[in-house]
Amino acid sequence: IMCASAKYNTRGPALIPRMKTKHRIYYITLFSIVLLGLIATGMFQFWPHSIESSSDWTVEKRSIHDVPVVKLPADSPIPERGDLSCRMHTCFDVYRCGFNPKNKIKVYIYSLKKYVDEYGTLVSNTISREYNELLTAISDSEFYTDDVNRACLFVPSIDVLNQNALRIKETAQALAQLSRWDRGTNHLLFNMLPGGPPDYNTALDVPRDRALLAGGGFSTWTYRQGYDVSIPVYSPLSGEVDLPERGPGPRRYFILSSQMALHPEYRLELEALQAENGESVLILDKCTNLSDGVPAVRKRCYKNQVFDYPQVLQESTFCVVLRGARLGQAVLSDVLQAGCVPVIIADSYILPFSEVLDWKRASVVIPEEKMPEMYSILQSIPQRQIEEMQRQARWFWEAYFRSMKAIALATLQIINDRIYPYAAISYEEWNDPPAVKWSSVSNPLFLPLIPPQSQGFTAVVLTYDRVESLFRVITEVSKVPSLSKLLVVWNNQNKNPPEDSLWPKIRVPLKVVRTAENKLSNRFFPYDEIETEAVLAIDDDIIMLTSDELQFGYEVWREFPDRLVGYPGRLHLWDHEMNKWKYESEWTNEVSMVLTGAAFYHKYFNYLYTYKMPGDIKNWVDAHMNCEDIAMNFLVANVTGKSVIKVTPRKKFKCPECTAIDGLSLDQTHMVERSECINKFASVFGTMPLKVVEHRADPVLYKDDFPEKLKSFPNIGSL
Amino acid sequence: MQTRKKYIFLTFLASWLLLFFFGGDQLHRFAFFSGRKAEARRNWPRWTDRTLLKSFADPEELQRDEDPSLLSPRERRAAWLSVYRGSRCRMETCFDFSRCERHGFKVFTYPQERGQPISETYGKILSSIERSRYHTPNPEEACLFILSIDTLDRDHLSGQYVRNVDEKIRGFPLWNGGRNHLIFNLYSGTWPSYTGELGFDIGQAMLAKASFDTQSFRPGFDVSIPLFSKEHPQRGGDRGWLHQDSVPPKKKYLLVFKGKRYLTGIGSGTRNALHHIHNGKDIVSLTTCKHGKDWEKHKDTRCDKDNVDYERFDYQELLHNSTFCIVPRGRRLGSFRFLEALQAACIPVLLSDGWELPFAEAIDWGRAAVVGSERLLLQIPSAVRCIHPERVLAFQQQTQFLWDAYFSSVDKIVHTTLEIIKDRLSPHRSRSRFLWNALPGGLLVLPDFSTHLGDFPFYYLQHGYSPSKKFTAFIRAVSQAGSLSQPILRLIQAVSASQYCAQIVVLWSCEKPPPLSGKWPQSAVPLTIVQGRGKLSDRFFPFEAIQTDAVLSLDGDPSLSTSEVDFAFSVWRSFPERIVGFPTQSHFWDPEQGRWGYTSKWTNELSIVLTAAAFYHRYYHSLFTEYLPAGLRELVDGLAACEDILMNVLVAAVTKLPPIKVTQRKQHKEAAGQQAECRDGAAGTPPPGQRSPSAPRSAPAQLKGTAGSRRFSQRQDCLNQLADWFGYMPLVFSQLRLDPVLFKDQVSVLRKKYPSLEK
């Protein structure tokens, strides 16, 4: 089975078989041939791109006047009216879409035709600018296929965006004669202005049988949830007017109404609001005395004052979007573009893309009957929230309203997500503006679980050749009650680990993993041998930690399973003179990192370290043989947004930088290197994820005046 | 040697084949190989005259929208009322909002009539409503009505089917055509078609129904609820089964199903096909033909072998050891299996086309379940194999969150239903989809408190906010004679000296008026005095005067120094959703007496932080006062010294995490008995005799006299009553204390930021 996912290596990096030189040559030849092959394929991968881009030149250069004309006989069949009971499982043929590794539906576009009736009169305008843009966008997208037999979704080139611009019966006949029409199954129609006088239906009146409808202005009675897609009414002003994003903050007006064709009843209610609340409410209307040549659509008036539209929308915090004859209003798009929070007053209206967009974050919906309370309702919204709504409104416009392309692609993505739900785009991806995506974290271990103590932890000791010290560490660690397994990562390729009989006899299983290369990242590989959630990473010279201290560390980790819980703490500081980050190992009142020479963490972070480390950090660490612990601290803090937990008082640790405290010579280069690491990682992550805290964890009764023998962890902090 | 060579060549060959396999797609597109040059991808043409095309609507048309002015909005709404009824009901046409305006969202349950038996399950639903904070015994106040007739089982072949419902409801004077009524239903229709038929006219009532199908579901009006069994607990409910987050999910099976196979009738199509995906290794799909009385009549060739295989596996064992569980439709669309899988953290793979998923108005099921299609059963194995391990882990955790937040008890299911309906009443004060789908869940987030995520303690990290940099000291003042005691003066001074203190709010809970402003100590921060209503639960009332996220709650004159306060506040900023404080206590299970015990002895563990000196988020005041039902607060007002336990229980129930203890300079003189009460017992109006005149927070070891022991036993009672009320014991243990980084380290005090904590 081909999955789009990268399969995790289930074995360690160690397992390249050792072989005799004789065979090596075969393997080398084989390897080079495969490599050559790969390069060749790589080149092929490249070439077709240039062909695709050159396809722009091969597309037909034709005029719309040249498209073939199709005559519709008066008695040609008409599809059934839209079926209100249609749902994906009843009216949609999923077998056409099939299972594919990319989880993308294939969309086919019918070629453009001009339809005329028996008398040769045009059925509709051939195609509008917007519909042409929409079809171009689909054609340029990943969804597009030119092979009608492989298509899952069909888009007719018959333009039904505006119902007023077409003849209903004849358009229906034109649809029915499409080559794959088949009662409209898997056909998608785009409509923005449905209905017509006098009753203004909220869905396209053209009979369309089972076709899906992407419609602007659905009401809850015509919208087939999970089948139709509610889309915006595109505002051509979006393309014409450039409104730069305006920062959040107070604006001149609190409520603004800019629509020209309001029902007098609504206008009366708005004017009552204005009378009550004075100048913070501005109700604009069309201008009556404009000089010639000034487009009426770009001006609004209040008494004698003339305002530029849509610029005036940026002057207000809230902008009213009232229903007209239709529910969907193009003004919604203008309002969002201006970063004004829409106040939507249109009972039963299905908001654009409501299947995926969380409109409560960007708008205020007020029932028509509550219009008189609008002012107090809006007043009750906290300022901070208003600012976020403004940002959110603008983001919705940029992502889903600004062009026909945005509208088309969002529509197709929604349908795609229904067909491949397990590969669907998440709520956050749809809704979070880039600034939020950037500053927020989504913790992969978000469920507050306290792992059962019985699980225990696996100690992973990275070692090279200090066997004596290693054996001491093993003996010490094996005394910890919750230890469930000990894993020695033998990082020395030139020397075999000691024979089995020489190893200390301990009560838990002891496994030795041999690595292929002496790399620091081997310490963080998610070995299958690690069966517990908790991992204790420990250096082969950390012999000074007592069993109580280690057991307590494990207990602390259980309370904070999504954090690094470690013993020696370190700090990063901003060096104002050098204008960069500095590494600090002195006696500080704060910590932001713990050394992984002795630290508990969740095995999940081994996966992250090995497979999801951003940029070239992993290689950089292996190349410099340093800072794997800082990298781990960055990784965990970045993904969880949380600080480390340092446990128990400071001890003398045998580590290069600790010599400074011992009064011996300070290893200056080491400190410089470590500082460099911090700066390097901060630039790769694009931010400084480390969190500084002032606390460490001790047992509840630590240093309390209480009999030592009654304490759970008496032996803490001994030097 | 020869074999080795052979292998090498085979490998070599295989690699080339593989290369072609992967690269082939590109290769055949490559003109050189396929000669398809002339047929390059035919895109949508770039029309030469595309710039001349007209817009789909001219701007005037878009902005004018030609309102016909035929029907005024008011008339249109009136017209809707008569058109959109029955199956087309919506809130705006079939629900009377005006009933909810004066008294808010209140729910009335019809009194139960004698001789009208109701099922155990319906009894639970009714008592959930009666226990909720929305219940009202007065129909005049009610916004929503619940029938006392058991409408859960509307399968007329069932023993619990209630007859003549139509007649009965027409006799109810409050029925009003079903307006503002909510009808619960678990089973509708009967053999063979199992339609949504209820057997009576529901009029304009809303339906909260299990196994809802999307076609008869009235969006924004009905509520789809999950199917749950008779044994489903009233409250509390079992936790989910996920105890560890392992990646990759190391479970024995990938995908399992064990259940009945219908030989005929509705739903048999899907269940008949399930055996096709069984591979006996990581996918186990077992069916049995044995169901009903006459299964042998319909039995087919597979039945006997299937029945044997079926017996070899245990359902519970499969549930526990599988990553994904198939949840196919039964006769009806929903099944018990759905909740069972959810609880077991076995990711449901739904094969139930057209099912309106439970609470889909609020819950984003795409995060916790794989919504498959009955028609694509055979794609399911490859589809679930392709889900990334990280995603699987997220799915598993989400199943547990949803189970615990909305499904684990009848209370939760019913309350979720009510909250969804309440949210519709004022869309601007309702929960966003994000709130429903993030911890701690929609029920625990009150939109009446705020609609801004940053005002809650739960979403700081997810949205990149940080909690406020200042705190409010909230002091409950008790004074013997309307004047201020020395300890309280010292306390105000110590707290106001903290650089993080924004304001001091004093809760004056004696009947005597508070001292004049001149008597209060001068401090750098504003001091506000609020008057309590004389109840113990006052100290957790959401007073408007409290304006910062952090509240430092002080009671009983603890002696705190400024550094202690500063350090504790810096810790709270790291754990804004928890209670962070100084003196702690602990609970334990007493197996001899079969009840919860309570201890204030020095122990190695803690589960309660006394709110006499603790930081917490001010939102918990709102939760305490608005979320907890009145009955619980009355319980607390009646018992002495129970309110802080309730606060701890509440926060633990919300966060599932223990509180945090921070360093304190020296042990608070807890048993000193110096804590004075208002002379005439004005603080609180407990029933006489239940309350000791002076109430020291004493350790049992130091108990002297009956007053102390009575107080102690009251705290123990309180703990047990709360555990009973919540349905489980929410408190969680912690074994740690957070100290300053250099606490008691052997280094010069000059280097230490909080040297005074070590004295």
UniProtKB/TrEMBL annotation, chain A:
Transmembrane segments: 25-47
Database matches in Pfam families: Exostosin_GT47, Glyco_transf_64
E.C. code: 2.4.1.224
Statement: the UniProt record of this protein carries the keyword Membrane: yes
Subcellular location, record wording: Endoplasmic reticulum membrane; Golgi apparatus, cis-Golgi network membrane
Annotated ranges, domain Exostosin GT47: 102-381
Pathway: Protein modification; protein glycosylation
InterPro entries: Exostosin, Exostosin_GT47, GT64_dom, Nucleotide-diphossugar_trans
Family: Belongs to the glycosyltransferase 47 family.
Protein name per UniProt: Exostosin-2
Organism lineage: Eukaryota, Metazoa, Chordata, Craniata, Vertebrata
Record gene name: Ext2
From TrEMBL, chain B:
Positions of the UniProt region annotated as Disordered: 665-712
UniProt keyword list: Disulfide bond, Endoplasmic reticulum, Glycoprotein, Glycosyltransferase, Membrane, Signal-anchor, Transferase, Transmembrane, Transmembrane helix
One GO cellular component term noted in the UniProt record for this chain: endoplasmic reticulum membrane
Main location: endoplasmic reticulum
Gene Ontology BP annotations: heparan sulfate proteoglycan biosynthetic process
Keyword Endoplasmic reticulum part of the UniProt annotation: yes
Domain of life: Eukaryota
Membrane topology according to the record: Single-pass type II membrane protein
Biochemical pathway: Protein modification; protein glycosylation
Localization per Swiss-Prot or TrEMBL: Endoplasmic reticulum membrane
Recorded GO MF terms: glycosyltransferase activity
Residue span(s) of domain Glycosyl transferase: 481-743
SUPFAM superfamilies hit by this protein: Nucleotide-diphospho-sugar transferases
UniProt cross-references to Pfam families, sorted A to Z: Exostosin_GT47, Glyco_transf_64
PANTHER family with a match to the protein in the record: ACETYLGLUCOSAMINYLTRANSFERASE, EXOSTOSIN GLYCOSYLTRANSFERASE 1
UniProt name for this protein: EXT1C protein
Organism, scientific name: Hippolais icterina (icterine warbler)
